[in-house]
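Example 3.
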Amino acid sequence: MWLYLVRRLFLAVAIVVLAVTLLFVMIHAVPGDPAAIILGPRATPELKAALHAKMGLDDPLPVQILTFFADVVRGDMGTDVFTQRPVSRIVLGQLPFTITLILTSIAWAALVAIPLGCYSAIRRNTMIDKVTGVLSVGTIAIPSFVMALYALLIFAVLLKWLPAIGAGQGGLWDAIRHLILPALAVGIGWVGYISRIVRASMLEILGENHVRMARAFGLPERRIVFRYALPLAILPTVTVLGVGMAHLLSAAVFAEVVFARPGIGGLIVTAVNTRNYPIVMGTVLVTTGLFVISTTIADLVNAMLDPRVRESL
Amino acid sequence: MTDGKSTTDISLGRRRFMQAGAAVGAGIMANGMPLGQAIWAAEGKVLRARSYADINKLDPGFYQNAYNVDVMNCIYSKLIKYKPGREWGWELQAAEEIEQVDPTHIRFRLRKGIMFTGGYGEMTAEDVKFSFERIIEHDSPVKGDWGPLDHVEVEDDYTGVIVLKKPFVPLWNITLPYGCGHIVSKKAVMEKTGDGGDFGMEPPCFSGPYVIDEWKPDQEVILTRNPEWTGPKPGFDKIRVLKIEDPKTGETAYQAGDIDFTHITLSSMDRFKSDPPEDTVIEDHPSLYYIYLGMNQDHPKLQDINVRRAVQWAVNVPQLLDAGYFGQAEVATGFVAPGLTGHREKALIPPEGDLDKARDYLKKAGAEGLSLNLDVLNETPLKTMAEMMQAQLSQIGVNLEVSVQDPGSFWTIGMESEGDRWKKMQAIIQRFSMVPDPYYATTFFTCEQVGVWNWERFCNERFDELNAEAVTVNDPEKRSKMYHEMQDLLENSGCYRFLTHGGSPLMYRKTKLKSATRPDGRPLFRDFEPV
């Protein structure tokens, strides 16, 4: 297990370096001059040149990449060209909002979807299974932003039960109230998706020999489902949840725009539009790191649950 | 000694709660105040308004973007400020009096007792001198706002004279009442920066009726009353300027009651006018922005003026505006918006164009079957207009390919400093922001600006002469004529087809506030009053 852990962590670091390098090259390949955007129409060529030099944009690209990684190792992600604040402070200031949104969304989706998937598998081909199936496919098919807009119109505008924008003024209850609608919109598609995976996986496991054997021994059905079937059926779901973090990060972008919530998604969109390279790189580094951490954790959980996985790397 | 029942016993049973609630309710009703307003009064007067972007610069000498100036207006003072209302004008703020002594000298006298926070003392003429001169000395990107400023002479603690190298009329319209006109404390800024340069997002002190209480990046900036403020008391105890980038989200937030003031999109205006949210005032304001179709006259396909004229005449502007702005935007007659000196009553080419004339021009150029590329920013109204333009030009046999660009890419297309893209640029739907002086519209189309911001590469000696001279002319009528001529020259070059200035509608809750805006709808939060 330790060897697996070391190998997996090494791979994780390699993925982060590769992804960040690729994105660095890509963002510099598209046209656009941050100095022109930052300084506005009245900037003189001298001012633009000075800003280029300050941002290190005159250096060759490989030098810029190496400088970036060297600075990151020293704990310096650069400075925001607009506000002159450290990028690390800006990104880490926004990160909790995005993580809270993602974790809440995935948590409520999993809490609803896993029992739903199990129930559908146990009550296979009943009316409840069929209704659940239709609803699941429905939630997968409806784009999250459509859900977001309807949720806003119903719960914020029409009923005025929940706030429409922001992350709250402080206090746990206020933060929760501001989180409900975005989390609902981001997570709802995952309810259908996870429940379908759990159902399919459960059906497969419930048909296997060890489950039939347990039934032959007369074990109670509840014990068979929760003790022998679900732990195995949950494995693909764990992997999907890990990979799903990346999907949720992109879903967070729309949620942060529609609900005017602070977060990494909104930050990266604005930064790309204004060619604010330090912020782009900082957010890319953090989001790639998040993605790699979540998939690594999913792999480690899988490896713990299923020893065969450890041999696969 | 007590009898065991403390006088501070405040346990509240259900019955007592109901009684107390009824008494409070009755009191409020007897006072003639609706419950919502009673709660509003109890909360303190808080203004909640939308801004489309988060603040990112609070040094007025190096200001960028109007959303920063909206906040600066509240935390600093200027000699003069824009007068709220429907007509452009200014009124005194920190100055007790100000006069144009001669074309290059402006004498001002400060009001006494305007204090800087943090113990930096009273505002003096020396602070005014420092605030204005540092913009030139430190080569600020906005030093152009100060035009030919030479220096400021200090006569005594409160009196000074702004000395210009040559006359500069826009000073009264875009410099003194706007970003560069804010006054900072010399002592505080020198302490903070060492050399008097840009202090970015960390103001060392304030001189307005509000101070920054809290800035939550990417969320909101909260302003509270300045306890050291000695001027007229501002209406609100607190101002929360919330960053809501998407205008439609702003509309939803307003409807949900999360904010009380927001701009609305032109596409929503009809809906809100016919079915306004409760207690809401909807105001329509003309915008200063200018949106036009530009053509690069140096591109081989567009070098023949007849080709450019063909495109000009093929474009039916009202049709474009119907598609892009749901018919809510007015046709532009030039770069200068209505209400400003230099606005033309009508353009040389009628808004509807003329397809026959367009075909004639195309035939004269021998360019039938022409194919052109049109660059456009990725914003819905502009994209829609580009698509409509595509259909219109197809009527004269011109094939228009629309190329949608993100802001980062779009804003450098025509810049020579950014490689060779300017050579490939053919046509563009361009949108420039504007301040309330025609100088700002024309100054980007001089020969000097070719390949900088003049992407159509229009260059005309007479235009440059007029542009230089018009800033020195005080007589509005004479000045107006000069800008008319300049816009005629632009239009006659075939490089430009003026489309619209857009619009700047807004809404606010009349039970909460009385808004105060510039004629273009830009909020002057400092002058907002609670109801």
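The first helix of chain B runs from residue 14 to 30. The domain at 14-244+510-530 of chain B is CATH 3.40.190.10 (D-Maltodextrin-Binding Protein; domain 2).
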